[in-house]
Design brief:
The complex is a heterodimer of chains A (120) and B (253). Chain A is mainly α. Chain A contains six helices and no strands. The chains are: A mainly alpha (120), B mainly alpha (253). At the A-B interface, α1, α2, α3, α4 and α5 of A face α2, α3, α4, α5 and α7 of B. Chain A: Keywords: Membrane, Transmembrane, Transmembrane helix.
């Protein structure tokens, strides 16, 4: 049943976010440390475990994959509620920092990708 | 008649936002196919259009949540809010190739470290050149260059002035917007076409919304790899900026 997949996804998300929150408290940080990342790892582990035991039914898969496919529309909705006005009107310092940081990080992605590409 | 429309917009806010985003995606697919011959990804067009609408929404409503501040579009706040965003991001992990992810593990950690230190240092230097001299403001503005969450969290922890916190948020939001818009354009030049570079990208760029939007517009299959590292970024920033980085900045100033 599809709801089992969605419930599994919900369980992994809740557990991951809770662990991320706990990690934040432990480190005295006012933020969630890697909650979503932990949840993703839990879901990957759950998938491997279910596949091994042959319990990953097509219905269950559907319950997870529907949400994976809804990801882009959700990101579009997210984009539509950004405070773009403030970002654009933030003044020269905001503009300069934003543009330089993003340009530098793009460059670093290329550099990192290349160095590891050579090692392969 | 108008009474019915208003009532439905209020009561069916989330359902209405599904229809609206669907319509926007359909239009974007049309533009992508007809006007750009499929060269520009439909998702990229949809995200840029959504950002433009968010700008318009900000102008019209004077609020901080873009289009979602207009009552008829309030459902977008729920659909695009952190809860469903994180839920959908976790779901993308279902398609992750474990072997690929494990191979890129060390690369992801290096990218995370660089992605926190480099924007912070640049943010501090630029803030310095604009006349900020106190360690609290410098650290807050540097933290804003990490992500728009790290900025205010750091500012609040250090007791920064409210205009400085607002600026740090603006820097972070601009970063997210730029990453969303520019990623599909530069993807080819920075070799962003495989899981390994996607993990490096997620760690370096950090901003979950920027990475999520940028990768979605570039290649959907890369989304989970980028998200996997990006999700640690804000937490690490919130950990180091108000503590270690602040101590270093105040030692230098």
């Amino acid at each position: 049943m599809a709801i089992f997949g969605t419930a599994l996804l919900a369980l992994c998300t809740l557990l991951g976010v809770a662990l991320g929150e706990g990690l934040g408290r432990l480190l005295h940080v006012k933020a969630n440390v890697g909650g979503v990342g932990i949840a993703m790892l839990l879901l990957i582990l759950a998938k491997i475990w279910l596949t091994r035991r042959g319990k990953l039914t097509p219905g269950m898969r559907l319950g997870v994959e529907f949400w994976a496919m809804m990801y882009i529309p959700i990101v579009v909705a997210m984009a539509s509620q950004q405070n773009v006005l403030a970002a654009v009107e933030g003044g020269p310092m905001v503009l300069l920092t934003g543009v330089l940081v993003v340009a530098t990080c793009f460059g670093l992605v290329g550099l990192l990708g290349r160095t590891t590409g050579g090692a392969r | 008649m108008i009474g019915i429309v208003e009532k439905i917009a209020e009561e069916q806010a989330l359902v209405l936002s599904f229809a609206l985003v669907g319509a926007l995606m359909w239009l974007s697919a049309l533009v992508s196919r007809r006007l750009t011959c499929g060269r520009i990804h439909a998702s990229a067009i949809a995200i840029v259009a959504a950002l433009a609408l968010a700008w318009w929404g900000g102008v019209v409503s004077g609020g901080k949540k873009g289009l979602a501040d207009i009552p008829a579009f309030a459902g977008l706040a729920l659909m695009g809010g952190a809860m469903l965003r994180d839920f959908a991001i976790v779901a993308t992990a279902f398609e992750v190739d474990v072997v690929e992810a494990r191979k890129a593990g060390l690369l992801g950690i290096v990218a995370l470290a660089l992605g926190t230190i480099v924007p912070f240092v640049m943010g501090v230097i630029i803030a310095w050149s604009f006349g900020y001299r106190d360690a609290v403001s410098l650290t807050t503005l540097g933290a804003g260059a990490v992500t728009y969450i790290v900025g205010p969290v750091t500012g609040a922890a250090l007791g920064a002035a409210s205009p400085v916190i607002a600026l740090s948020i603006a820097i972070g939001v601009l970063k997210a917007v730029l990453v969303m818009v520019a990623t599909p354009m530069v993807a080819r030049f920075i070799g962003l076409d495989n899981p390994r570079s996607a993990m490096a990208f997620g760690g370096l760029m950090g901003t979950v919304s920027g990475v999520a939007g940028g990768l979605a517009a570039t290649d959907e299959r890369l989304v989970p790899y980028g998200a996997l590292t990006a999700t640690f970024h804000t937490g690490i920033g919130c950990l180091f900026c108000p503590s270690l980085f602040f101590l270093i900045v105040s030692a230098i100033v």
